[in-house]
Amino acid sequence: MASPTAFITGITGQDGSYLTELLLARGYVVHGLVRRASLFNRSRIEHLRLDPAIGGKTLFLHYGDLNDTTSLRRLFRRIRPGEVYHFAGQSHVGLSFEIPEATCHEVGHGTLGLLELLRDQEHPVRFYHASSSEVFGAPATAPQNEDTPLRPTSPYGCAKAFATNLCRVYREAYGLFICNGIAYNHESPRRGENFVTRKISLAAARIARGRQHELVLGQLDAARDWGYAPEFVEGMWHALQRQEPDDYVFATGESHTLAEFIDAAFATVGLDWRRYVQFDARYVRPIEPVRLVGDAAKAHRLLGWTPRTKMADLARLMVQADLALLDGAEPAR
Ligand code: NAP
Ligand code: GDP
Predict the structure, then answer these.
(1) Could you state, in order of their start, the residue ranges of all structural domains in the chain?
(2) At what angle do helices 196-208 and 311-326 cross, to 10 degrees?
(3) CATH class of the region 5-189+226-254+290-308
(4) Least buried of 27, 138, 256, 300, by fewest C-beta within 10 Å?
(5) What is the per-residue pLDDT across 67-118, written as a single tens digit (0 to 9) for each?
(6) For 293-319, what is each residue's pLDDT tens digit?
(7) CB-ligand 1 contact for 66 (6 Å cutoff)
(8) Nearest CA, atom 14, ligand 2
């Protein structure tokens, strides 16, 4: 039997890299969209690409861009993917206040372009859309589930809400197999360095090694439902294996403040974070979401999905990975 074929937009990102490993382990042929950058942006999947048993055999990278629907159309025709995982787009909430047009264009319009492509496919395609807890923004209830009304509080959240609703409309209107995964924050040693958990884990490791002396942050009372990215991509894959398409919340169901995360991270290296953390209003956002904590009961019931890693373990494993990175060990996989 032919191997299943998947196409991933955002394959070079945190989730794209973990999902690629999961799919390859399950016998898929994986195609990924890579955009041109002045420096190579493939560090998270380089170990796969350079593996002679994988690169060019079961893993293929293609230049393209979400904004270039002609090249995407050509790729769809050539690859004929059975599953599409759509992760690409500007993913930083804070930055979305500074570059709202680019964010909305990529996250909102970029998704619409893919949905239109999906309509034109002659063979059945299953589509996963990486929605976000930011669509809830300031919800009236906590925890949130798939039926909680969308009330975003950032340009990023607005764009994800637009894309999430479009996915629902295209599913209903055209009978397409489209799933929204409404994911709460998920982190890992591969998280981008300008997200707060990674900024903290790197700082704890660098301070412990005498290579940094302070950690400058914004609001410490901000709270998030933080999970572990490799576990979240398992749920995403399961979503596309069901008989019917649906929407799922992926979350741990626990909310922790930034101060608690910092405490757990610095405890890993035996340091008192209060001696190092400084405040800078530059990192305070015009609006913060409130009470974001997810109810993943539906994903548990229908997909058998359960997150295993709790916040303190997540902080510890991220700091340990950054220590290994600083000490010259191989990057954590
Ligand atoms: P990430 O690490 O920032 O990765 C984003 C990916 O999108 C990268 O591969 C990036 O390419 C690519 N990309 C950005 N703009 C593009 C464009 N115009 N054309 C083609 N590719 C483009 O994000 P992530 O953490 O893996 O998250 C994956 C998705 O889930 C994102 O849509 C994010 O918004 C969403 N999400 C994430 C979380 C979370 O906690 N991680 C929670 C909810 C939802 P480069 O490598 O070239 O930059
Ligand atoms: P987000 O939930 O996708 O916005 O993930 P981030 O990791 O970017 O931010 C999580 C929370 O940490 C937000 O409430 C930020 O306001 C707060 N925060 C405080 N200081 C910082 C900082 O220096 N960088 C970032 N990225 N966030 C910070």
Answers:
(1) 5-189+226-254+290-308
(2) 50
(3) alpha beta
(4) 27
(5) 999 999 999 999 999 999 999 999 999 999 999 999 999 999 999 999 999 9
(6) 999 999 999 999 999 999 999 999 999
(7) yes
(8) 222
